[in-house]
Amino acid sequence: PKGTMAFAGKYEFEGDENYDAFVQKIGLPSDKVEMGRNCKIVTEVVQNGNDFTWTQHFPGGRTTTNSFTVGKEADMETMGGKKFKATVKMEDGKLVADFPNYHHTAEISGGKLVEISTCSGVVYKRTSKKIA
Q1: Is the pTM of this model over 0.85?
Q2: Contact status, residue 90 vs residue 104, Cβ threshold 8 Å
Q3: 22 φψ region: left (φ > 0), alpha (ψ -120 to 50), beta (else)
Q4: In this predicted structure, what is the pLDDT of residue 37?
Q5: Domains in the chain: boundaries
Q6: Per residue in 44-62, pLDDT tens?
Q7: Which residues of 68-103 are buried (b: 16+ CB within 10 A; e: fewer)?
Q8: Which residues 6+ apart lie within 8 Å of 34 measured at CB?
Q9: CATH class of the domain whose range is 9-130
Q10: For residue range 18-45, what is the model confidence (pLDDT) as tens digits?
């Protein structure tokens, strides 16, 4: 199937759009807002068929890891550190997840990892370039 292993790799933050408006909408605490601004997050994706391990490495050594299987409920953590259950779906080669207060998609486009989160009409887009 199209895009089965397309996500595997390491990606480094390249740029984003609407960061401030989005983090205000989702209620991210101000210390986390500053920490995340233009943060050189490295996203590491390990994919084995429908099983994914999605790790974000933050400068300073902090990491967040979400492991999930497409179509099955999994324990997840938001960018604000909230834990919840969600089912990630695959639609048109995009991974789609509904977080408690936003809708998130991830896709590989032009060799880059493009993540889009939408909350109350605010669209946050983050682009990361492949480094490994």
Answers
A1: yes
A2: no
A3: alpha
A4: 81
A5: 9-130
A6: 999 999 999 999 998 888 8
A7: bebeeebebebbbeeeeebebeeeeebbbbebeebe
A8: none
A9: mainly beta
A10: 999 999 998 888 888 888 887 889 999 9
